[in-house]
Amino acid sequence: MEMFGDVRVDDYYWLRDDSHSNPEILSYLKAENDYTNQSMSSVKQFEDQLYAEMIAGTKEEVGISTPIRRGSYYYYERTLVGKDYKLHCRRLITNDTCSPSVYDVMPISPKAPAEHVILDENIKAQGHEHYYLRAFLPSPNNKLIAYAEETKGDGIYTVYVIDANKGTAIGNPLKGVTSYIQWAGDDALVYITRDESHRPDKVWSHKLLSEQSSDLCLYHEKEDTFSVYVYASESKQYLFVQSWSDNTQFIMYLDVYKQEGGLMTLTPRIYGIQTKASHSGNHFFIKRTSDELFNSELVYCPIDNPSETHILIPHRESVEIQDFQLFSGYVAIYEMENALQKVTVYNLPQMGEEIGLLQNGRAIDFVDPIYSVYTEESQFSSNILRFSYSSMKTPLSVYDYDMTSGISVLKKIWPVPKGFESSDYLIERKWAVSTDNTRVPISILYKKNLVKLDGFDPLSMYGLGSYGESLSPGFDPSVFSLVDRGFIYAIAHIRGGGEMVRKRHEDGMLLNKRNTFTDFIACAEYLIENKYVSKEKLCIIGAYGDGGLLIGVILNMRPDLFKAAVLDYPFVDVVTSLLDPTIPSTTAQWEELGDPRKEEYYYYIKSYSPVDNVRAQNYPNILVKTYLYDTYILYSEAAKFVAKLRAIKTDDNMLLFKCKLDEWHYSKSGRDEYLDDKAFSYAFIMKLLDLAPHVSS
Question: Which residues form the Peptidase S9 prolyl oligopeptidase catalytic domain (predicted)?
Fold first, then answer.
């Protein structure tokens, strides 16, 4: 392949078969799987043990989710012993005229209103190897339910509307759509479809009981680097259609009560400006980000004059506004400062009064030194903010926070196995220094009585560093299968991610992408220098495309630093894939990594692309996993990477490749099945460190 006078030779291009039917390739992949299974057979019983542990650590045998109050009902999900899927239920609220309180509890006594099971996923999943249910949405009057169902693992959904009480179908289902749906009043839905490359590109309005063929297309995004999304304001009066690329987002809105007006522009399409909007009272509220306002500002504007914006919270260089949540009388602001989240609540003036700059907010206190906090559905007309909280040693917890009194009440904490004590573990925040003197945070978890910090403890480090996504230091029950065996678990918050101010993302993308990799190496070197681990016991993991890209690059750059590496579904044939716009993820990646059809980006991307930089050197032990039917990250990328390593590397270390021949990316369904991947990876790591019991075979 030749471009800009540069010739690349790909000896393994033949491994790509988009029809997934070439018998020679299928035989090749099966042989790789057989070799992997044979190589891991001595620890198969241990792998099964890990899997059982993870299930015990994550499964809620019998229980319900935190009930959500919507109108006159509590809605919740319930799980059953031995069942993979959820029941969607509700109970009538008999005293719904009373003001909500953080102390409210859904009554479940025999005298309480009976539980009504609206939908049982276990019944719906019968006869399907794969089943996903998304977007379970009650209509505003609570009479109907809309939900999106997918049974093939290809991300193409069918939307059904049913009577909430009877479960009977209302009209014909919407076929070939995404799971992005919203109610537009009680008798209409707004939904999104994809184009041939699986890009969400069209927004439709559907009147109940009408045929899908007569639906009105509200908007068609023709620019192939943009995708569309729809969401509702907390007030439910407006639907917002967001068209977005990696660095540009603009918004249109639909007044639910005046749908005949169609979509109206709220924020225009201006390259480099990103916006998110919502509504309260007679104002729209907009989070706005640009090159100058890289950490975002929060503004408001009158509904009848969107161009007249006023600042609520100005841009600050050290604090990023991540999100905001509106109420009729309050606004909650979610921010990030110095790699730590914080939530601040402000009063909003009554409708008709001047708003002005937000001042004298009340910050919510959290107990752990590092943690994760997320928005949850709350009641717009109440003074109760619901959020979820966890840390690396604190299980996921749901709180109701009284924004008037400042009182937090724990509503639910995720169950953990018997004997788990949070006080047995220690979490730390450390800072490495990268090659350009940039400080890089590391989140660390270990069990106090098992770790000596003498350089001989095993350590597993995880990283991502792309798309501004945060690897938040929250609770992951599965990692305790490592930690309870004496491992230290570390998360490297490298540039390209979203753990700090927005500029950290920009400093790890496009022509700055190498910062992502040098940051990760700096974190590894810090952990070695400070005796958390030695090279002989340091293992690294990266997952889901960009995490796999990270590890693939690191293996070529510094293979001497690590004992073992796991690449889950990696994006490693970067130049070739980014030159192919028929792959659904390609156009979105152009704004993150660059378009190699331009000479500057071509050579820069080639300089780190894992497949293009495999060379004759010693590599650590490596496990690579992928899906045959993945349309976003082609299986052939991982297959080529492994084949080239086998041909060129100079060591005798283990190199395993596992290709799932009957699944799509994210195609596992059910509560527990995704854990078999982690159990396999952890068994691989512990086998290499001689920490797994072996059975001769």
Answer: 475-689
* pLDDT score recorded for residue 666: 47
Name the β-bridge partners of 191.
Answer: 181, 204
Res 630: pLDDT = 87
Amino acid (one-letter) located at 634: L
Q: Which residues, at least 6 apart from 278, have a Cβ–Cβ distance to it below 8 Å? A: 233, 234, 235, 240, 284, 285, 324, 326
State residue 78's pLDDT score: 92
Sequence-distant (6+) residues with CB within 8 A of 115 are 89, 90, 91, 108
The number of CA neighbours under 13 Å toward the Cβ of 682 is 25
Burial of 477 (0-12, 13-18, 19+ CB in 10 A): buried
Is the pLDDT at 673 greater than 80? The verdict is no
Place of tokens 């906090």: 373
How far apart CA 405 and CA 108 sit, in angstroms, is 28
Residue 333, beta-bridge partner list: 324, 344
Strand, coil or helix: 129: coil
Q: CA 621, CA 652: separation in Å to the nearest integer?
A: 9
505 with 424: CB under 8 angstroms? no
Taking a C-beta distance cutoff of 8 angstroms, is the pair 527, 442 a contact? yes
Q: Are 534 and 689 in contact (CB under 8 A)?
A: no
Residue 285's nearest CA partner among 321, 310, 268, 316 is: 310
What span, in angstroms and rounded, lies between the C-alpha atoms of 672 and 669? 8
Q: Which of 340, 561, 551 is nearest to 463 (CA)?
A: 551
Give ∠ CA 77-82-88 in degrees, rounded to 5: 15
Q: How far apart are CA 286 and CA 298, in angstroms?
A: 6
pTM to 2 decimal places: 0.90
* Count of CA atoms in the C-beta half-sphere (13 A) of 495: 27
Phi-psi region of 235 (alpha: psi -120 to 50; beta: other; left: phi over 0): alpha
Residue 496 burial (CB count, 10 A): 28
Question: Helix, strand, coil proportions of the chain in percent (round to 5)?
Answer: 25, 35, 45
Q: What is the DSSP letter of 497?
A: B
- Convert the pLDDT of each residue in 322-350 to its tens digit: 999 999 999 999 999 989 999 999 999 88
CA-CA distance, 104 to 101, in Å (whole number)?
5
What span, in angstroms and rounded, lies between the C-alpha atoms of 527 and 539? 12
pLDDT per position as a tens digit, 179-192: 999 999 999 999 99
pLDDT digits (tens, 9 = 90+) for 11-23: 999 999 999 999 9
**251: which 2 tokens?**
């918004």
CA-based max dimension of the chain:
80
Q: β-strands 488-492, 459-462: how paired?
A: parallel
- pLDDT at residue 1 above 50? yes
358 alpha-carbon distance from chain centroid: 31
User: How is residue 155 annotated by DSSP?
Assistant: S
Q: State residue 287 phi and psi, 5-degree precision.
A: -90, 125
